[in-house]
Amino acid sequence: MSEHKATPVGGSLMTPTTWTLLVIFLIGAALTAWRFTVGLGPSTGLSDGYPWGLWIAFDVVTGTALACGGYAVALLVYIFNKGKYHPLVRPALLTSALGYTVAAIGIIIDVGRPWFIWRIPISVGKWNLDSALLEVALCVMAYVMVLWIELSPAFLEKWQDSGHTGLASFSRGLSKFMDKALIWLIALGMLLPTMHQSSLGSVIMLAGPRLHALWHTPWLPFLYLVSCIAMGYAVVVMESTLSSRAFGRQREDKMLASLSGVTSGILFLFVAVRFVDLFLRGRGPLLFSEGYYSVMFWLETILFLVPAVMLAGSRGRARIGTMFRASVMIALAGSLYRFDSYLVAFNPGPGWSYFPSVPEVVITLGLVAMEIMVFIMLVKSFPILSGTSPMPAHRK
Amino acid sequence: MDRTRRSFLKGLAYAGGTAAVSAVPAVASEKRQAPDDAVGMLYDTTRCIGCKACVVACHEANDLPPDTRGNPLHDAPQSLNDRTKNIIKLYKEEGRRSYMKQQCMHCIDPACVGACMIGALQKREYGIVTWESSRCIGCRYCQVACPYNVPKFEWEEANPRIIKCELCNHRLAEGKEPACCEVCPRDAVIYGKYDDLLAEAKKRLADHPGRYVDKIYGEHDGGGTQVLYLSHVPFEKLGLPELGDEGVPKLNRTIQHGVYKGMIAPAALYVAMGAVMLRNRRKDDKGGES
Predict the structure, then answer these.
(1) pTM, 2 dp
(2) In chain A, which among 45-84 make CB contacts under 8 A with chain B?
(3) Contact check, Cβ <8 Å, A191/B266
(4) What is the pLDDT of residues A189-214, one digit of tens each?
(5) How many CB pairs under 8 A join A and B?
(6) A396 inside domain
(7) ipTM score here?
(8) How far apart are CA B276 and CA B281, in angstroms?
């Protein structure tokens, strides 16, 4: 199993790619500073009709779903005891930790008074247990921490061999403790996303009368949960394929193939529940009568079904290209579903419109750039990816 | 692999099914009632002459800066906004016109209160929905949730607040009426105890059959509102949405409390997942030794 041991990729940290990403991030950071001085009105396309826009719909709602790789793979490895997927765990956890961190930063930029956020976790007596958003907030705060702790063995492994004896012995001690405690931490790492990913569906469910009937259903929490798991697997496939190309490591083709089989089933389930629910509640006719909304609904459905079919047979799964394309589509499908339910199908009444402003887009790009940059730097420095042949180290 | 997939999907379906089933009995749970000390307003479109005295009085009473953004010469807000808690709008069509007064409806089961994470928005004294600065992080979920589009956000402030009608509760404390009701020259909007207002609205409907649409908006709509409307044109023309008789946050509350009751289900799931992993690890250890 030695080829499955995670090793740092090595190589120089600052390449033209990481420099470019850094510049994009810095531009976003500067715009963020400006946003805090002028307020949300001048800096965004948001309004009293569309109080939530790109930052919530993409950075938070879609971003955390795409960051469900860690959750989805952990379910397979630890609950269904598929140890063979183990090499996928660390990179998936890293993508998740970064994705959730970006979402948390996105929330801080989006809310009007982030200096009061600290009051949410400590105001236990004031918690509004009716509020799905409270649950999301608490879970996401906790989960960001859990993810980084889950990933910490990757850091500790490296630091154990550090020349600095204090750090090395600290890391060894912590590693021993982590070995024992990890199971209960991993369990938390699966419970929290189960809770808040479904609750992201509940959050927009409260918009009830203002959310289009094709999207509004008591099944929103279930649909959000199911689709985030599929998105998690899709991201793992994409991330594994891309990193094997970028860092010249062995691919986990067989592993990805059976992962894709699971994903296909989840996608069929999602579409089936959606349609059965619509027909049971007599909303079937809306599939054709709602113009633009019907079109968006069908577009989503096609984006969910095509990869489901592509991955249903073992022939499609045998080819890494097919799996990759299907995974891109799944990520798009889940993202569109989230954009539609948070923005497109949200109708605050006549006279309101929303389109993201340039600063909104650039700040989002800056966050994504930071996410990719940190991913590259961490896999080069720490044992996260498996099956790499370490490049000669130029750094330091 | 197949077994894994099947049991995995079964598990998911079961989780969803359980959530849905456990939600069913709670749906029948009691509807929220207006509090005993509830006060409110009754607006009657047949009496309103559109003089907007109430808009000016509201600005003064609530210390709001004039809204000259639409027209630099006049305090002329276009809609409810960060400087306007109360507004009169005109609805006009062939041969028919009506004024419409908009402000917070002070719902009996408010969506904004259901949304608010640590209770910045709450139904406080007299059932009035008020906003408390120290509990608000500016997430704007109240704006997403409110079916009447009432809470407004200070978009141009670096430290923004939520602005909405609080039924002049600072004036009520001094024994006065809400400013809009006090200045109305035609008593188109009146202030009173919720029960009295409802009785008055019913009396007007009975005394003048044919004058009004035969319904009191807010008696049941969206679970009921403490601001009631009588109108001679259909309510949806005035921008009052058809919400049904259920409180808007009821579905969310049902699911949220069904799934998370006493945190039993999450705790059980947590322990179950930990136990499965422990078992898996022991199995692996044994497998490794033999």
Answers:
(1) 0.90
(2) 46-49, 51-52, 75-76, 78-83
(3) yes
(4) 999 999 999 999 999 999 988 999 99
(5) 214
(6) no
(7) 0.91
(8) 9
